[in-house]
Amino acid sequence: MTAFRASLLPARRTPRQDNPLRMLVSAAPWRATAYLAGYVVAGSAFFAVATAAVLVGVVFSQLTVTVALTIGSVWVVRCCAQVERGRAALVDAPIPYAYQEVTEPGLVGHLKARCTDPAFYRDCCYLILLHPFLLLLDALALAVWLTLLAGVSLPLWFWAVDSRQADGSFADGVRIGRSDGTGPGIWIDTWPAALTASAVFLALAAYASYAVVAAARLHLTVAHTLLRPPPDPLAEAKRVLAAPGPLRPTPTRPVAGPTTHEGHRP
């Protein structure tokens, strides 16, 4: 159990830095950004594909002539889950997997093995049931993180934006706050103002990098919990028996017996 908990700490490619600026310039937040953004796109596509495959499999599972179609639906879900396992390499290592082997011949044997495999239901739980929650987590983390990064780059583009004023006219610059100028906000229309705002956003982004990495770790922990094989309850006992120690069998030496000349005196 200890080894399983250690495997749920996806920190090999997203190490935490004590210094916020070092954290910002490290690869960890950018790997986390790629992982979260990839799920927003790919995860949504997998949700639609897996949902359609499961519905098709459920509808036609009772018809003998469509057994092959049902098996194909299971394979579609498995392929989507395999891509998600491979995507984990962005922030950690690919997630291991283990599916139930087919022991009975024929399409019915394949259908029984695939549809009674607990790994298939864990794949469906991750791809379908948890998709709204994981999508919300990733979208919120990316929205905050990318907004702050856009603020850091203000000096590069503030002069090319026309913002609407309260009287309906337009002027060069960016307004932080109410975009129509009717509410509180800060007007960025000069280089000093843009550089000052960029420094503030940089400080905020340095601390926000911890949040985006934490979101990626939380997402990956959920993926590990559902997409990897369950731990073997006898793994620790097997390790102890396989290691050298007092429980390891020792070879016995033959006891030396009397020679052929013993007991006979000349």
Give your account of this protein's structure.
It comes from Streptomyces tamarix. By secondary structure, the chain is mainly α. It has one domain. It contains ten helices and four strands; from the N terminus they run ααααααααββββαα. The protein has helices at residues 2-7, 20-25, 28-60, 67-87, 106-115, 118-129, 131-152, 154-157, 191-227, 235-242, and strands at 162-164, 170-172, 174-177, 185-188. It has a two-stranded antiparallel sheet. A two-stranded antiparallel ribbon has the order 3-4. Strand 3 (174-177) and strand 4 form a beta hairpin.
Helix fraction bin: 55-70%
Mean pLDDT: 79
SSE arrangement, N to C: HHHHHHHHEEEEHH
Strand content: 5-15%
User: Could you say which overall geometry the principal axes of the C-alpha atoms support?
Assistant: elongated
Please report the total strand number as a whole number. 4
Q: Spans of 5+ residues with little confidence (pLDDT < 50)?
A: 1-10, 259-266
Summed up, the helix count is 10
Tell me the structural class: mainly alpha
**Biggest sheet, in brief?**
2 strands, antiparallel
Amino- and carboxy-terminal Cα gap? 71 Å
* Major sheet strand order: 1-2
What is the radius of gyration?
30 Å
- The number of domains is 1
